[in-house]
Amino acid sequence: MAIRPPMLQRGDTIGLVTPGSPLDANIINARVQYLRDMGFNIVFGRHVYSYEGIVAAPAQQRAEDVMNMFRDPSVKMILTTRGGTGVQTILPYLDFEVIKENPKIISGYSDITVLLNSLYLFSNLITFHSLMLIDFRLETPVYNFNQFFEATSTLTSPRIIQNPLNMPLKSLVPGNVTGPIVGGNMTSLVNTLGTPYEINTQGKILFLEETHSPSNTTFRYLTQLLMAGKFQDCLGIIMGECTNCLVSYGKTYENLINDLLVPIGKPLIVNLATGHGFYKAAIPIGANVNLNSTDNTLTVLETTVT
């Protein structure tokens, strides 16, 4: 069983880090005020506001911000400001043993995917494919906050991950499997292939989502994951949305799933609200879940915090 971090409660301290691309200072300040209005205390990594072009700061400095948050006993949760790109460059500078000894909630999506899955892989820590700092604002759907706080601030077990009412899950291959869930943004996961931080799908349930990738690019990603054995190794497959993804060569995202993944024969559901979509389910990376693609249910079988 993976390590569960201590739960988040109002009045706790949240540590902010920018492990990938920079975020505008005005946006950071507005979102921080929203968190403070919710009753949380905020501490800042040294490079939260930094700007080095594509990334916020050199990799070692961004990694040190993350490590300092894990070492700081006053910090209950580590919240990433945004994803963007470059998160994988901090991985060689992380001390996974220190992280394992100081488990904390860490949340994000997009390029944060590589950090979440690496923390589970090397520190055996449950992490949360859920909200980032940019999501803490009035316009965020209540669904997203309910999902986030149910996963990080309650001992609810089992927890059924339900899509919004107007967005049903759909089964393409029926089945019923149970195992740890891994995955996230497709682009980010493909970028780990051939590195020490390559995602391990053996005996796992794999979920994927994507954004701003035309069908021909998504075809490349799915094919690369297939050739790397990631779909063959996994127990089941959950496909989230491909938001703002253009159709190319007359093939849609849905066509690609039917052409490439359905023939594998693994339990498969599609349309999970997560990642870059307007609605964001909270997916606990490393937690045991049941995927029942006969009944179209996804259930987290254990508490994800203590």
From TrEMBL:
Keywords: Carboxypeptidase, Hydrolase, Protease, Serine protease. Residues 14-129 form the LD-carboxypeptidase N-terminal domain. Residues 178-291 form the LD-carboxypeptidase C-terminal domain. Pfam families: Peptidase_S66, Peptidase_S66C. Transmembrane segments: none annotated. InterPro entries: Carboxypeptidase_A_C_sf, Class_I_gatase-like, LdcA_N, Peptidase_S66_N, Peptidase_S66C, S66_fam. This is LD-carboxypeptidase. Belongs to the peptidase S66 family. SUPFAM superfamilies: Class I glutamine amidotransferase-like (SSF52317), LD-carboxypeptidase A C-terminal domain-like (SSF141986).
